[in-house]
Amino acid sequence: MAQSSTEAESAYDQLLSKYKRIANVENAGGILSWDQQVMMPDEGTPARSQQMSALSALRHELLTDDEFGELLEAAEEDDPTEEQAAVLRELRRDYERAARVPNDLVEKISAASSEAIPAWKQAKAEDDFEKFAPHLEKHVELKRKYAEHIDPDRDAYEVLFEDYEPCLPLDQAEDILADVREVLVSMIEDIRESDTELAVDSFEGEFDESEQEELVRDALSTLGYPWDRGRLDTAPHPFSSGTQFDARVTTRYDESDPLGSLFSTIHEFGHALYTLGLPDEHYATPLGEDRNLSVHESQSRLWENHVGRSRAFWQHFLPTFTEHFPEVDASVEEAYEAANQVYDDNLIRVEADELTYHLHIVIRFELERELVSGDLEVEDVPEAWNDKYEEYLGIRPETDSEGCLQDIHWAYGNFGYFPTYSLGSIMAAQLFAAAEEDIDGLDEKIASGEFGDLREWLRENVHQHGRQYETNDLVKRATGEDFAADDFLDYVESKYSEIYDL
Amino acid sequence: MAQSSTEAESAYDQLLSKYKRIANVENAGGILSWDQQVMMPDEGTPARSQQMSALSALRHELLTDDEFGELLEAAEEDDPTEEQAAVLRELRRDYERAARVPNDLVEKISAASSEAIPAWKQAKAEDDFEKFAPHLEKHVELKRKYAEHIDPDRDAYEVLFEDYEPCLPLDQAEDILADVREVLVSMIEDIRESDTELAVDSFEGEFDESEQEELVRDALSTLGYPWDRGRLDTAPHPFSSGTQFDARVTTRYDESDPLGSLFSTIHEFGHALYTLGLPDEHYATPLGEDRNLSVHESQSRLWENHVGRSRAFWQHFLPTFTEHFPEVDASVEEAYEAANQVYDDNLIRVEADELTYHLHIVIRFELERELVSGDLEVEDVPEAWNDKYEEYLGIRPETDSEGCLQDIHWAYGNFGYFPTYSLGSIMAAQLFAAAEEDIDGLDEKIASGEFGDLREWLRENVHQHGRQYETNDLVKRATGEDFAADDFLDYVESKYSEIYDL
């Protein structure tokens, strides 16, 4: 971390060592956040908040430092190699977005979140949207200003979206989600109207939590999780975090739902595998960092849905499952059906299945766009929310707690985050289809518990590139096609038509 | 962490908010270090080392920043209150020590440690002092330069000692340790020659590790450890760390030694209780930080030795112990003897008892003083070490692995650290004697498991002051006497004469 500069050291090298420090401060913050969610005792919050603010303010100051800007400019003019040019493109974007927003606005947004989060919790607990509304109002207002500082000439939501998807055009995302909505609304209607009864009874009952933990540890080992670079813990909201040297996963257990902890763990495994596949030698530089949220989510969903919810996987894994829970007397087919049940009356995003999930997202996406543009007033959110649930999913929330208050994202002022969840699933289908083409007998390999070729395909085609390519470029290199919804739609249509005899 | 300054904000307030950021960066580093020792997977080191270097370099830059120096001067001239003057005294000392040492020397010392630590490990494993000698040589040389930068007119060891004991004169420390050496050398000789056999058999055998964990958790609860501000984990080298909001302890288990994990846990409890007693409202400022190493060690040793190894404690705690280990059939007297056995043939500091421990320290203290002054050459360390063990403890190591290579401290270049261990124990005796005077029936209270008065006495007299008073001042306010060895010597003479019929 020495910052000494010699005449021989190029602007690029100096810049990169400044960036490494920034990335290390950020990664240190990641450890503090992991600890807060997994290990920290209840009363630790006041100190932890100050520690995390200190790191995040320092990161911001280091990134927006004049010298960083000057070195960036010098490096850009210094005839960079292709790889260097990619790094500089990423640093330029990070720098501009940070430097254009005044510190006091960053602080105001952070302060607004600190107030909004407890208000949101209370509003949700008491089913009282009024308690949250003024905070949501405040966030909309601040985030419009934020977007205006970054680029006054563009649509504010488009700018906000780039905080999470820096290099995927919003238009394209919008088209993809519209395609998905169109197909799914009618498929789900068909499923609701079909009289197919899935065989899910075998997975009902009480399942000991510590046995579930043993089971998910076995699942992680089966899939190839390297325990010397990671660990599994419990967290109220499962997540994964870390670096290529130390990528940790968390899960949670519900005695009545052993498939829940299993799929949540496989999901986090996918995230961790991505992180672990970033090149060691580029640690703490853009070439050793993940591309963005949708690519990350594509990795988790690929393992969760295309592997974990496949027939092939259950051919291999059912014996392990029944070793832990001998009372489960299910065939592979029954396990497959239980893993792919569509809940047509579920109001809650995080409990949704692979199909309805995306309509939960589309609803949030449409509403937050209108909120930011001013076409929807905060006070009208609950009704607009409920109307859309009725229109797209055929169900109407009876309370705001299980309606527009269910998710925390807006209490952080995060507008533009939700769509990345769906985009990730859609990208997962496209990547998996390409992997199936490239890997001979992938399905048979999964059925025999051989996951090495798939891990390697993902490492070569996605993980190892870090932030070298922009999203569309990365997808096109991996799959030969532009990023689109086609493979996802083929996948869900063929899978669910069969399961539900549509 | 806002750094905005207004005309109304005094130099003192601006300075304090700068210091808060520094302290928070340091505390963040503390979490990373805890995680590394307790949670981190094996392969996480490369990233973790960079994260910790980044934080420690940032801390150093923030502290030695010109603006920090200017604000410090302005605040000093601004007619500070008594409390402010204490804070400024502490910040001035921190600032001077950091600012006087050039960055490249700090980096050289850090690089020398990175090389010395694996070399020390290898030398210890292979019993080959030659492998470590050049690294020790290098550290001696660098640390002499380091001391010269801080103050060229003073004895180098005196300056180095202040890294650990910033405000206790080395002369005084030397006198105290000389007094202790004189008494202990002859006491231990007497014990070696006595034919008293202690009743220790009841605590021999195999003791299940998870049951030991339950036992030490009970011990922590009994002593009053607040679980909502802390946690217990396992670490290869037990330690405690954290802040007043989150002070964690660690321990380790040895199947053949249930008293080992118990006393190690009580020791760390004492450290944590000190940290927890620092005022919440002064978090991340000198008034909310611990005084120094000897005061910290006084708190751990007070609980470990004066409480945990007392007859009264075993009157209360033996039933809890035998609940966990019903096979132990010991009287309170036998438990007391087992807890206070003197190992007159032990060569290893960390396995030493309450008496011989201090001779292990005195030997290191005397040798490192001579090393730094040049009176002892590195190549002569092994023989000088062995000679002193023979002279003070009547035993001579047969290998350097169990001689001068046993401890890691010198591989870090830490000269002046060892004496703080003994000074802490000696201070513990003085503080406990004062607490006994102030608290009616303290012994009976301990025997009935009432520790609240003692905790409160320590909080009022030691913990709550943070760094407000310098060491001698703190001890004198708490005990009415200058810091000296008298109470410690009275304590060990009366205790061990009785146990060993001297």
UniProtKB/TrEMBL annotation, chains A, B:
<keyword id="KW-0378">Hydrolase</keyword>
<feature type="binding site">
    <location>
        <position position="271"/>
    </location>
    <ligand>
        <name>Zn(2+)</name>
    </ligand>
</feature>
<keyword id="KW-0645">Protease</keyword>
<feature type="binding site">
    <location>
        <position position="297"/>
    </location>
    <ligand>
        <name>Zn(2+)</name>
    </ligand>
</feature>
<dbReference type="GO" id="GO:0004181">
    <property type="term" value="F:metallocarboxypeptidase activity"/>
</dbReference>
<comment type="similarity">
    <text>Belongs to the peptidase M32 family.</text>
</comment>
<dbReference type="GO" id="GO:0006508">
    <property type="term" value="P:proteolysis"/>
</dbReference>
<keyword id="KW-0482">Metalloprotease</keyword>
<dbReference type="InterPro" id="IPR001333">
    <property type="entry name" value="Peptidase_M32_Taq"/>
</dbReference>
<feature type="binding site">
    <location>
        <position position="267"/>
    </location>
    <ligand>
        <name>Zn(2+)</name>
    </ligand>
</feature>
<keyword id="KW-0862">Zinc</keyword>
<keyword id="KW-0121">Carboxypeptidase</keyword>
<feature type="active site" description="Proton donor/acceptor">
    <location>
        <position position="268"/>
    </location>
</feature>
<protein>
    <recommendedName>
        <fullName>Metal-dependent carboxypeptidase</fullName>
        <ecNumber>3.4.17.19</ecNumber>
    </recommendedName>
</protein>
<keyword id="KW-0479">Metal-binding</keyword>
<comment type="function">
    <text>Broad specificity carboxypetidase that releases amino acids sequentially from the C-terminus, including neutral, aromatic, polar and basic residues.</text>
</comment>
<dbReference type="Pfam" id="PF02074">
    <property type="entry name" value="Peptidase_M32"/>
</dbReference>
<dbReference type="GO" id="GO:0046872">
    <property type="term" value="F:metal ion binding"/>
</dbReference>
